[in-house]
Amino acid sequence: MAASSFVRVSNVIIRNLTIRDTRMPDDDPGDDGYDYDAIQMDTANRIWTDNVTARITIHHNWFRNTKTRSPSVDNVAYGHLYNNYLQNVGFGSHVRGSSKTVIENSYFDGVRDPYYVTGSAELAQRGNTVINSYGPPAG
């Protein structure tokens, strides 16, 4: 459960908020007992956030046999992707919009375009392993 959870809802407006320190007890004992989601949306549509600075962290995931956006960071202020495993994936980590993102210590195996950057996005990558993959290298 997140600090704010929106499930099967429509027409939600979130504005002018600072959300922080969202450490909450969680019912998953394998997750150190805490869930850090500030806002969680599941099967929700028409969500508007206004005057929000978003930061996203995606870590310790296995993306396998997907076609695109594995994962995607779009128009958040800062993104940090680390310790992810991407296997047999179309476009790898897609960084776009005006996001500033760091990808590190991830493993790319059989990935077309492991680092896919569009728009005015900025990407730094370090400590990654890329095998059996192709596409332009990231800067």
From TrEMBL:
Protein name per Swiss-Prot or TrEMBL: Pectate lyase domain-containing protein
Keyword Ribonucleoprotein: no
Record domain Pectate lyase: where: 50-109
Annotated source species: Kibdelosporangium aridum
Coiled-coil region: none
Pfam families attached to this UniProt entry: Pectate_lyase_4 (PF00544)
Keywords noted in UniProt: Lyase
